[in-house]
């Protein structure tokens, strides 16, 4: 499908055709956005930075799920379980074997990727609801193993305290220092995902998603690409899990719940399936909605005669479920589709073509 561009903007080479950032205006917006992002610690409180850090970690996990579900069409409800693998792997390597966080991070990503490969094997035979059940098994099995097996290493139900990230003798214990660890990795995850879906692998993912039988007839090794999608998705989850453990300074199997995996899928639905921008929009929208529900929950609870904590825990799922329902009814293609409409509108206005 041709991309609408402002009048007078056209491509003169293949490099311009395939560039992610095409015009001077887009370069200016990207540079200003990066400057604004990386100067946030100068004028934002620790509370705001904690929300942004949470968005960055969640975005990495949702991007992985977007590659698997949005582009390759394989349903997974075990993303939180693969994050659990990454979190425990990095923590154990740092605590028990003396690894630095920077050396433990790729190990955590690979460990989570291997776990994803194992639970992605059923994708050869089943798909849809049945594949969701297979990944649901990972969500139950993996956290249970970390909570009940080798408890002298994993800490059992109590979990483990996570040493702070260190670099050149400095410990990252504040939200600002963690911000400069999380944000570059989140931006790198966006850049890799954006380029991946434009490669031969990305086109194979889309072919498998649209019709795996037709993809097989065209010569696409569907099983290979399904497993590759699970592997990449789980690598993203492993990185997100390792960052979450370092950010929270605590790792516990009870933190990686089925509800977390479901909300990651909900973020894709609200943001828009099959879109890198959709993963970003869905993450920001849901994390912001969660913070709003925490703020207004006690006030609403007081108005209806409930305690603040009870109202917050009860109303947050209600808000989230209602939002997902409304998006499925009125905007099933998500916020990313609305963003595409907006871009086309301002590029073509005031002309009808």
Low-confidence stretches: none
Classify the secondary structure makeup into a structural class. mainly alpha
Instruction: Indicate the radius of gyration in whole angstroms.
Output: 21 Å
Helix content: over 70%
Q: Average pLDDT value?
A: 86
| Number of distinct helices | 16
What share of the residues does DSSP label as strand, in percent? under 5%
Q: How many strands appear in the DSSP assignment?
A: 4
**Oligomerization status of the protein chains:** single chain
Run of helices and strands: HHHHHHHHEEEHHHHEHHHH
Major sheet size, sense and barrel closure: 2 strands, antiparallel
The neighbouring-strand order within the major sheet is: 1-4
How far the N terminus sits from the C terminus, by CA atoms, comes to 15 Å
Description:
Helices cover 73% and strands 3% of the residues. The chain is built from 16 helices and four strands. It has helices spanning 14-18, 24-38, 40-43, 46-71, 79-96, 101-120, 129-148, 151-154, 175-196, 200-210, 212-217, 222-248, 258-271, 276-303, 308-330, 334-348; strands at residues 160-161, 165-167, 170-172, 250-251. The strands form two sheets. It has a two-stranded antiparallel sheet. The protein has a two-stranded antiparallel sheet with strand order 2-3. Helix 10 crosses helix 12 and helix 14 (276-303) packs across helix 15 (308-330). The radius of gyration is 21 Å and the shape is globular.
What labels would you give this structure?
about 350 residues, mainly alpha, two-stranded antiparallel ribbon, 16 helices, about 5% strand
């Amino acid at each position: 499908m041709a991309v609408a561009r402002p009048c007078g903007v056209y491509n003169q080479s293949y490099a311009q055709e395939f560039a992610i950032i095409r015009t001077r205006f887009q370069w200016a917006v990207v540079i200003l956005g990066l400057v604004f992002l990386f100067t946030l610690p100068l004028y934002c409180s620790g509370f705001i930075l904690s929300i942004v850090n949470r968005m960055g970690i969640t975005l990495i996990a949702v991007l992985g799920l977007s590659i698997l579900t949005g582009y390759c069409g394989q349903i997974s409800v075990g993303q939180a379980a693969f994050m659990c693998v990454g979190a425990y792997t990095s923590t154990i390597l740092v605590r028990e074997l003396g690894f630095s966080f920077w050396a433990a991070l790729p190990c955590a990503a690979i460990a989570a990727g291997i776990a994803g490969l194992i639970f992605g094997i059923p994708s050869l035979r089943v798909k849809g609801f049945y594949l969701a059940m297979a990944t649901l098994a990972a969500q139950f099995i993996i956290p249970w193993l970390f909570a009940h097996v080798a408890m002298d290493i994993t800490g059992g139900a109590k979990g483990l305290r996570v040493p702070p990230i260190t670099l050149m003798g400095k410990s990252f214990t504040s939200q600002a220092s963690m911000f400069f660890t999380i944000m570059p990795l989140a931006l790198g995850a966006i850049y890799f995902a954006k380029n991946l879906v434009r490669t031969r692998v990305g086109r194979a993912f889309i072919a498998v998603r649209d019709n795996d039988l037709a993809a097989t007839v065209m010569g696409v090794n569907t099983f290979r690409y399904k497993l590759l999608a699970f592997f990449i998705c789980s690598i993203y989850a492993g990185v997100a899990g390792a960052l979450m453990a370092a950010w929270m300074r605590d790792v516990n199997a009870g933190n990686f719940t089925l509800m977390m995996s479901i909300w990651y899928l909900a973020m894709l639905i609200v943001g828009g399936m099959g879109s890198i921008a959709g993963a970003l929009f869905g993450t920001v929208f849901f994390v912001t909605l969660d913070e709003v529900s925490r703020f207004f929950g006690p006030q609403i609870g007081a108005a209806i005669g409930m305690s603040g904590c009870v109202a917050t825990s009860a109303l947050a799922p209600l808000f989230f479920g209602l939002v997902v329902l409304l998006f499925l009814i009125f905007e099933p293609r998500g916020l990313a589709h609305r963003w595409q409409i907006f871009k086309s509108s301002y590029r073509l206005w005031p002309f009808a073509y």
